[in-house]
Amino acid sequence: MNLKKAVTFGAMLTIGMVMSGCGKSLSAESHDSHNGFTIPVTGKSSESAIYWNTDADGTSKVKTKNGKFSFEIPSKAHKFTIDISNNKDMSDAKTIDFKGETAIAEYSTFYDAYDFHDGNSINFLPTAPLADRNYADDTKNNAFSIHTDDGKLLGLNVYTQYDYSWFNEIVYVIGDSLNADTATLEAGVKSASEKPNQYITKKSGKINYTFVINTKKDTYQMFVHS
Fold first, then answer.
1. Contact call for residues 30 and 13 (beta carbons, < 8 A)
2. Which three-class secondary structure state does DSSP give residue 95?
3. Following CA atoms 36, 44, 16, 102 in sequence, which dihedral angle do they give, to the nearest 10 degrees?
4. Biggest alpha carbon–alpha carbon distance for the chain
5. Could you tell me the pTM of the whole model?
6. 208 sits in which H/E element
7. 120: Cβ–Cβ under 8 A, 6 or more apart, which residues?
8. Residue 29 Ramachandran class (φ > 0 left, ψ -120 to 50 alpha, else beta)
9. How far apart are CA 182 and CA 204, in angstroms?
10. 212 closest CA partner among 32, 35, 31, 41
C-alpha cells in the first residue's frame, strides 16, 4: 500500500487482552485509525518480540522496544481475528476479534461514477484493483490511494504538495462520485485551511471526509472513510 504520510488518529476500541504466566506477560489493544486502510495494534510484552497472524496471513514477528510494541493490519470488509503470542510457535496465543470495516461503497459503483465524471482525466483507476497502490501520476508530490477488500471500497486517501488546484478538483470528483454534499466538502477544506495541522472531519450521508492542511509545507490531504 502506498499511503503517503498516513496519520493514525481516533479513539481506542474497547477490545483488549492480557496474558500472564511463567514469568511472561502480554497485553494488547486495537485502535480505530479512521482512515479505512489499516487497524493499529499496540501493546506491552515482557519478551524481546511478539508474534501475530491471521487466518489469511503467515506469522509475523514484531520487536518490542522498552517493553512496548506496535503494528498495523489491513482493514477488511468481513469479520476476522488475529492471534498474538509471546512465542514463535503461537502457543498460548490470545485472540482479538474484529467486526470488519463498513464499506464506503461497492468499488464497481464508485468506479462507474468516477469514470462518468471523467475522473480518469485526473487519475486512472482500474476496473478491479488487485492491490493497494498509488494512482496519482506524480508519486512524489501527488498521491491518490485506495483500499479495497471483497470488492468493497474501504478507504481512500488523497495527498498533494504544491498543487491546491489538483486537490480541489479531485476532492470534488471523488465527493460527487460518492454523492457527497459539495458545500460540506468545501466547508471541510476551508476549516482545515483555517486550522493548519488539525484533522477536520465532515460527514455527508454515512461517509466521513477528513481533511488536514499544512500551510507551512503547502500540503493538502483528505481521507475518506466510514
1. yes
2. strand
3. 0
4. 62
5. 0.81
6. strand 207-214
7. 114
8. beta
9. 9
10. 35
